[in-house]
Design goal:
- This protein is of the alpha/beta class and 1154 residues long.
- It is 55% helix and 13% strand.
- The protein has six domains: 222 residues, P-loop containing nucleotide triphosphate hydrolases (Rossmann fold); 83 residues, no CATH class; 118 residues; 199 residues, P-loop containing nucleotide triphosphate hydrolases (Rossmann fold); 150 residues, PCRA, domain 4 (Orthogonal Bundle); 160 residues, Alpha-Beta Complex (Lambda Exonuclease, Chain A).
- The strands form eight sheets. Strands 15-16-14-17-22-11-23 form a seven-stranded parallel β-sheet.
- α20 crosses α35 and α34 packs across α35.
- The longest helix is centred in the N-terminal third of the chain and has 31 residues.
- It is globular and about 125 Å long.
Length: 1154
């Protein structure tokens, strides 16, 4: 392979810690594998002297396989050349040893390595090594139980501090915010090496010197102020640009003066005073900040003066707003006042510390009771062990080389683990901070950034950083497009970070990336609900995507891997989304309706697939109908079958209340009687479902709802129906699994699902499709990481991004500590504190940076074609706005729209372009009915009519099965017997179904020696039950079901005596009987409970349970066919006549002759 200069350096450099910053498509994995391969094959390092960690089991397995292939190929090559040379046999033996060691080598996730540490040194921390791993679902449930227990204890104790804490930070409706607060803080501290030491330090900071006046806190405030002033400078800079482009000297002079005012503020921050002095001077300067009044005359010479005036005014107001926000939020009071205010939150923080410790104690106890350890425990156990010198020295001596893949996703405790075992110069870390998109999993890209800056500056002599920025994936236009965007929006996107096309065919069969907009199909002042608008917008955007795909299929691309030109196929295309929930299923449906098969590929998306999301909405509504979004989803589904037009009509007539209330009102007083009746019928269905949910087992109810509503069948009839039905069956299984642990409560099951979603537990849909099926993939950007596609369509480009909001809730940050508001619940007011505002601002910045990195990951998946797709209310207004506004972080469009428009232009997909696309199932049915009406009078030729009415003469044989059970044959055609129930007293005692009891009696009768039971009586039968219990043939509970007196009576009966004296007795005898059934030859299978042979023939005996009050004739009617088949089978097998047939009724103890 031809390595680049930078790749060669990363492969060959030795004796230093190396941080490889590897941009998207730069071959980082290939470099990592090559370095490992050369260390083994050329330098004789052994694979068991290396620690290679990555972040998923799949990635670890893939890495192991790549290393195995590389070693195998090279070893075979070298063996052929060196077998006969001196040392050749030793090298061959070395290669074989490496292959043998590979399966047990430390190529794993951090958690797997931590487990290895624990298994080896468990005795150092006093735990048993046989614990089980608590998976994410179990963790969610156990933490929920721990939180419930904590709240129950707190309410019972009645501590005033608890009730005040609830009043201040949770609200008076429920404890959901209390739960969220505690869980958020617990999640934060669990990613730290010393969780409760951090809590202690953070609490003490609130009344210590560093509460607000310390260097760390003030340093962050100044850093924040510089960033915000830079935004203000950008706005003023835009005004300067307008002045130059339109030759407006007055505006140029005004803008220069505005820039001076902002520079003056910045100069205070960069002054040489102490932090406290800088804070006070900056606060005073903000108080006196004022920009010069702008005169309208400066625009007189411009043709579009009014337009320019509005843009300039907006920019100046934006700059003034930034300065005003700095003053009000961060510099409103003196340092002493701020410190005093934060000290008032000390008691709340101290109580939070107590709550966290109690919560941790309860949760830990629950895990110990089940012998479980979660992933956080595993990391902390390993960290505690490795702080022991003996353990750390062992691993430090063992590992000559430590490799960390995807280093940008490390967290604090993982970094601490590595620091405890590394040598001064044996780290090789590879990653890309621009692709760090797992902040929600507590990844810390700041670790990568800090180390990159340190290595780049030369602070660490034994450490270097290497940049790999040659992209071997994307064609040149895509590389240029990505650079154009991120040079404008991503901090640090410099010459070292930007991409350079690495493929020699990067200019072949190229096409420039496109940003395409489509417009919403309603008027600007439309009164349609937001929920409906979102559905309609998603549908319109999906039609636009279908149009783009339709036009792109067959385009010629150059396949770099095959080295040839070929047409673009459906399997080459992926539609990426920020999240597939509520959108992926709509795209899936509309693509399918337009003959573009698609697949939602999302391991975390089981609950976001259309069929699961829709069915869960039904469960939500059954639990509580007053949930508008779920009600709308249910109405739109096949279960209730409302059209968008019908749903809109309901809202248009009743606009004021919730949609549920509008639905009720329309059912009573709707204008359209047919629609009103449909609403009433739907409400009755929901009420019926509610009643069923209260009396049926959860999994049985879920399955019945799927079948009775026709939803399961309807999903099977849709494109990829097998996939959808498999997902629905999996949901039924999950309901059963939940029921086995937590009961049949529908409310509890819904809460469990919400907990799983909130915790982001990985729960993928059932996979039935292969990677190479010719269909379009739909997936989240997160799912696409590490993959590449010839064509990428990024949808939802104009969709507003979701950022977290804290409000008055306390917030927690690993670097800044704990921020609480000042709350007066009696007066009904709260005021945020400086530290709380700082943490909220840090979160907002981190989330915005993460969104940019997510966008980078999305765009860098594309190889040949890249299309960005968005929908907006008014395209012309949106284009004017994006050109006038400074880029913001509200959406990908607001971040990048201006740069794209200036450099590439914006395309439009109007309604004309999506004409001819299918508008959905209901409209297709209407069209088909219309065609049938038009053709109703056309005379059909007799030959066509004959063929259409043809009936296959052997149609009944198609329904015949080759094999039947005896029960199948016995049940066909028999009448229902109404009076076979047990009496009430027997039902009250019964703990098991008749089928379960029958199984137990069969087992006992099979093992019972009738002669011994008759002779020894109760002692023998009790001894038999004890024997069967000890051998685990039956359980103790099952043994209690057996009526010993009835078995004694059976053994002493005339039949019992005949069995005891028979010359041959057989029990549980299986058979296959070939016979005729409904005119066809079939095989009947069965098991005969008991038969015995006498001189003049065979006597057949069968056991039955649950027929307590049955009359003799009813028994004959019910089981006559079955006994007849048993008799035929015995006569055919043994050539002897079956002279008598009996049924022993175990519940009543009666023996009936059949």
């Amino acid at each position: 392979m031809n390595w680049t200069k930078e790749q060669q350096e990363a492969i060959e450099l030795r004796g230093k810690n190396i941080l490889v910053s590897a941009a998207a498509g730069s071959g980082k994995t290939a470099v990592l594998v090559e370095r490992i391969k050369r260390l083994i094959l050329e330098e004789g390092s052994s694979i068991d002297r290396m620690l290679i960690v990555t972040f998923t089991n799949a990635a670890a397995s893939e890495m192991k396989e790549k290393i195995r292939k590389a070693i195998t190929a090279e070893a075979e090559k070298q063996t052929e050349c060196s077998e006969n040379l001196i040392g050749g046999k030793e090298r061959t033996a070395f290669f074989k040893r490496q292959m043998n060691l590979l399966s047990t080598a430390n190529i794993s996730t951090f958690h797997s390595f931590a487990l290895e540490v624990i298994r080896r040194y468990f005795y150092l921390i006093g735990i048993e090594p046989n614990f089980k791993i608590c998976d994410s679902t179990q963790e969610t449930l156990l933490r929920g139980e721990a939180m419930d227990q904590l709240l129950e204890e707190l309410f019972e104790e009645g501590d005033e501090r608890f009730f005040r804490f609830l009043q201040c930070y949770s609200g008076d409706r429920d404890e959901s915010r209390f739960r969220e607060l505690l869980n958020n803080c617990y999640n934060t501290i669990r990613s730290l090496p010393e969780p409760f030491a951090w809590v202690r330090k953070s609490v003490e900071r609130l009344c210590g010197e560093d509460s607000a006046g310390g260097e760390k806190t003030l340093g962050f405030i100044f850093e924040l102020a510089v960033e915000k002033l830079a935004s203000a400078e950008m706005m003023i800079g835009h005004n300067r640009k307008i002045a130059v482009e339109n030759s407006l000297e007055g505006l140029a002079d005004l803008s220069s003066d505005d820039a001076d005012h902002i520079d003056a503020l910045k100069s205070i921050i960069y002054g040489a005073d102490t932090c406290e002095d800088v804070y006070e001077h900056f606060r005073e300067a903000l108080g006196t900040f004022k920009l010069r009044t702008m005169s309208s005359k400066i625009f007189a010479a411009a043709e579009n003066g009014e337009t320019l005036k509005k843009i300039v005014t907006d920019n100046r107001n934006g700059a003034k707003k930034i300065v005003r926000n700095l003053k009000e939020v961060y510099f409103s009071h003196s340092i002493d006042s701020v410190c005093a205010e934060m000290a008032k939150t000390y008691d709340s923080a101290l109580y939070t510390e107590e709550l966290l410790k109690r919560y941790d104690s309860i949760y830990s106890l629950k895990k110990r009771e089940k012998n479980l350890a979660d992933f956080g425990d595993i990391e902390h156990y390993a960290y505690t062990i490795l702080k022991n010198r003996e353990a750390a020295d062992f691993y430090r001596n063992r590992f000559e080389h430590i490799f960390i893949d995807e280093y940008q996703d490390s967290n604090v405790i993982q970094e601490a683990l590595v620091d405890l075992i590394r040598r001064p110069d044996n780290l090789f870390m590879v990653g890309d901070i621009k692709q760090s998109i797992y902040k929600f999993r507590l990844a810390e890209p700041e670790i990568f950034q800090k180390k990159y800056s340190m290595y780049a500056s030369g602070e660490e002599k034994n450490s270097v950083k290497i940049d790999l920025n040659k992209n071997f994936r994307s064609k040149q236009p895509i590389v240029d497009f990505i650079n154009c965007i991120f040079e404008n929006i991503m901090t640090g996107y410099d010459e070292n970070a930007k991409l350079y096309a690495g493929n020699q065919d990067a200019d072949m069969c190229c096409a420039a990336p496109k940003l395409l907009l489509t417009q919403v199909p309603w008027e600007e002042n439309s009164e349609i609900d937001e929920e409906l608008k979102n559905i309609i917008k998603a549908e319109k955007e999906a039609y636009a995507a279908a149009a783009v795909i339709r036009d792109s299929l067959g385009d010629i691309i150059f396949d770099s891997k095959r080295g040839m030109e070929r047409p673009l196929e459906k399997r080459d295309i992926v539609i990426l989304m920020r999240g597939v929930r509520n959108y992926g299923d709509i795209f899936y449906k509309i693509l399918g309706e337009n003959n573009i098969p698609a697949y939602i590929d999302d391991n975390d998306g089981f609950f976001d697939t259309m069929e699961i999301n829709t069915f869960l909405s039904a469960l939500y509504v059954i639990d509580n109908p007053k949930q508008d979004i779920h009600l709308l989803t249910l109405m739109r589904s096949e279960m209730l079958g409302f059209s968008i037009e019908e749903m809109a009509a309901i809202r248009i007539q009743f606009r004021e209340s919730s949609y549920y209330d509008a639905f009720l009102s329309y059912a009573e007083n709707g204008k359209d009687e047919e629609l009103s009746y449909k609403c009433r019928a739907s409400l009755e269905k929901i009420e019926d479902w509610q009643q069923l949910s209260k009396i049926m087992p959860l999994d049985k109810f879920v399955w019945k709802l799927m079948i009775d509503t026709g939803f399961y069948i309807a999903m099977g009839a849709m494109p990829s129906g097998s996939q959808r039905q498999a997902n629905l069956r999996a949901l039924t299984d999950k309901a059963g699994a939940y029921q086995a642990v937590s009961g049949s409560s529908l409310y509890g099951f819904i809460r469990y699902i919400e907990a799983v979603k909130e915790k982001k537990v990985t729960m993928g849909q059932v996979k039935l499709l292969g990677e190479n099926d010719d269909l379009v993939r739909i997936m989240t950007v997160h799912k696409s990481k590490g993959l590449e596609f010839p064509m990428v369509i990024l949808s939802g480009y104009c969709r507003k991004l979701n950022y977290s909001t804290a409000g008055k809730s306390p917030v927690f940050h690993k670097d800044l500590g704990m921020g609480f508001p000042i709350v007066d619940p009696k007066a009904g007011w709260y005021r945020t504190t400086l530290l709380q505002n700082m943490i909220k601002e840090r979160f907002r910045k981190e989330e915005a940076d993460e969104e940019k990195r997510i966008l980078y990951v999305a765009l860098t998946r594309a190889m040949d074609r890249l299309v960005l797709l968005g929908i907006c209310p008014d395209i012309k207004k949106e284009l004017d706005k994006i050109s006038a506004k400074i880029p913001s972080n509200e959406s990908y469009w607001s971040m990048t729209g201006r740069a794209i428009r200036e450099n590439y232009g914006i395309g439009v997909i109007d309604d004309e372009k999506i004409k001819g696309l299918s508008k959905g199932k209901r409209r297709s049915i209407e069209s088909m009915l219309h065609i049938l009406d038009e053709c109703s009078n056309i005379k059909v030729p007799s030959e066509i009519e004959r063929m259409m009415n043809f009936r296959y003469p052997y149609e009944d044989d198609l329904k015949a099965r080759s094999k039947y059970s005896v029960s199948d044959i016995n049940s066909s055609g028999r009448r229902v017997i109404e009076d076979l129930k047990q009496p009430a007293f027997a039902e009250a005692k019964e703990k098991m179904s008749s089928m379960s009891r029958g199984t137990i009696y069969h087992a006992v009768l099979e093992h019972m020696n009738v002669a011994s039971a008759a002779g020894e009586g109760e002692s023998y039968i009790l001894g038999l039950l004890k024997f069967m219990t000890e051998r685990e043939i039956i359980t103790p509970d099952e043994a209690e079901i057996i009526d010993v007196e009835k078995l004694k009576a059976f053994a002493s009966s005339s039949i019992g005596k005949r069995i005891a004296s028979a010359k041959r007795v057989e029990k549980e005898k299986r058979f296959n009987l070939r016979t005729e059934h409904n005119g066809s030859n079939v095989i009947i299978r069965g098991i005969i409970d008991c038969f015995f042979e006498e001189d003049d023939g065979i006597v057949l005996l069968d056991y039955k349970t649950g027929n307590y009050n049955a009359q003799k004739d009813d028994i004959k009617m019910r089981y006559g066919v079955q006994m007849e088949l048993y008799g035929k089978a015995l006569e055919a097998a043994y050539g002897k006549r079956v002279k008598e047939k009996y049924i022993y009724l175990t519940d009543s103890g009666r023996i009936v002759s059949v």
